[in-house]
Amino acid sequence: MNRNDAPKTPATFHVKSFGCQMNVYDGERMAEMLGTQGMTVAADGSEADLVILNTCHIREKAVDKVYSDIGRLTREDGTRPMIAVAGCVAQAEGSEIQRRARSVDIVVGPQAYHRLPDLIDKAGRGEDAVDTDMPLASKFGALPARTKQARPTAFLTIMEGCDKFCTYCVVPYTRGAEISRSWSAIIDEAKALVDGGVREITLLGQNVNAWTGEDDKGRKQGMDGLARELARIPDLKRIRYTTSHPNDMSEGLIAAHGDEPKLMPFLHLPVQSGNNRILKAMNRSHSAESYLRIIERVREMRPDIALSGDFIVGFPGETDAEFEDTLKIVEQARYAQCYSFKYSPRPGTPAADMDHQIPAAVMDDRLARLQALINRHQVEFNSATVGRTTDILLERKGRYPGQLIGKSPWLQSVVVTAPELSIGDMVEVDIISAGPNSLAGEISRRKAA
Ligand code: SAH
Ligand code: SF4
Ligand code: F3S
Q: For ligand 3, is residue 205 a contact (CB within 6 Å)?
């Protein structure tokens, strides 16, 4: 494929985000920026003049998916869109991507996407358009203000990057060092989102609870202080945050779960393994016991909190007995939901060079056992909410006419039939039944009176 076959001055675009919620956020900000440049979202993604693949490098599978997607962008008649690879694969592989996939016109890293308009111009002129800089001045200052949102929920990145260097993980290399955005930039963005109709904000960071900054009076603050300040925005009804690291779970943040009603009773706190030797080899710098103590304290403050976690099975050298410790910590922690993954060796990370990589069949078996346990707990957690009356924030239409779907405080999807209500409404519902992945609710008669 010749590079000249792509449109030179794209008018329409399509952003496809892979990976974590921060990529979703970045994708939205790219779209808003291109919108202010006069470009419009393509009605049909396959007809877009410019396709931005906002990629994830976390596991090998995620990367393979990107390359197969690039291949599929060439249409049957031989034409293709201008193709930009953004996100963590762009950062990790840089111009290497263009050697592997010649149809890629633009490569732009997660800290450089504010320069996308310039890169589009360059690519249109047939010039080199690769930018994986991590400039000192943050991209956030260069991006346009938030516009009106289509949904009542929004993500807001408050910090980015990671200094933890878990031995299996690429994120410290693809996202760079931990950097917190300023108090005022975050408050301003939150207010703009709420003015644009948002009622629930999820604060994002690779280690979101490591956020630190100074408030408008020059006092040092952590994420708890920030959440309390955001809670003062009257029309903002709910605050969530993800992902947290156990070592950054401050007493202040734990306390905020006890007395800040807008802070939702949900905590995603990955532990990765239940075995201390593996945790040490992973460089997690917490133990199974210290992790359990943290969640115990959070539960003292907020007994109904729903916990979520991430797990890796088959880390190099993991024995059967060490894997059993992971099942044990799952039993002890009682998660409402979890993500679990087979270990994937990533180029440039210390664990990729460790001895005793685990065979795929062993990993498959461990993952199946872990997921069976996690699913059982998820069903139990969902069943335990049947009979409760709770608020839900209606987020989207359901499958059938009159149906709307919202989230409970514990992040469960709740389906209600309520033709008289609209997306963005907060309603009180009685939970009447539960499945593994969603609940059914009825508008509460208590409130209707
Ligand atoms: N910053 C977050 C998570 C970032 S990545 C944290 O530390 O909690 C999301 C999840 O992907 C991780 O929690 C981990 O469970 C998983 N993960 C990261 N690297 C991986 C790898 N090399 N193989 C398999 N899973 C991995
Ligand atoms: Fe990766 Fe560990 Fe950082 Fe999470 S804390 S992003 S798993 S290095
Ligand atoms: Fe993936 Fe990068 Fe997020 S590697 S998980 S998109 S930080």
A: no
Which of 91, 163, 164 gets mutated to test ligand 2 (max ligand atoms within 8 A of its CB)? 164
Q: How far apart are CA 412 and CA 392, in angstroms?
A: 9
Residue 186 clears pLDDT 80, i.e. is over it: yes
Ligand 1 pocket, mutate which of 21, 178, 312 (most atoms under 8 A from CB): 312
User: Is residue 206 within 8 Å of residue 56, measured between CB atoms?
Assistant: no
pTM recorded for the entire structure: 0.96
Whether the pLDDT of residue 357 is over 70: the answer is yes
* 316: DSSP letter: T
Is the CB of residue 51 below 6 angstroms from any atom belonging to ligand 3? no
Give the closest residue to 282 by CA, choosing from 332, 339, 350, 328.
350
User: Can you give the residue ranges of every domain in the chain?
Assistant: 3-131, 139-384, 389-445
Name the DSSP class of 339: E
Is 442 strand, coil or helix? strand
* Residue 100 identity: R
Is ligand 1 within 6 A of the CB of residue 57? no
Domain 3-131 CATH superfamily:
Methylthiotransferase, N-terminal domain (3.40.50.12160)
pLDDT tens readout for residues 235-287:
999 999 999 999 999 999 999 999 999 999 999 999 999 999 999 999 999 99
For ligand 1, atom 1, which residue shows the shortest CA distance?
A: 206
CATH architecture designation of domain 139-384: Alpha-Beta Horseshoe (3.80)
User: DSSP per residue over 110-160, as a string?
Assistant: TTSGGGHHHHHHHHHTT---EE----SS-GGGGSPPP---SSSEEEEE-EE
Looking at ligand 3, which residue's alpha carbon is closest to its atom 3? 20
Please give the number of the atom of ligand 2 that sits closest to the Cα of 165.
Answer: 8
Same fold for the pair 139-384 and 389-445 = no
- Fold classification of 389-445 (topology level): OB fold (Dihydrolipoamide Acetyltransferase, E2P) (2.40.50)
Burial 30-67 (b: 16+ CB within 10 A, else e): bbebbeeeebeebeeeeebbbbbbbbbbbbeebbebbb
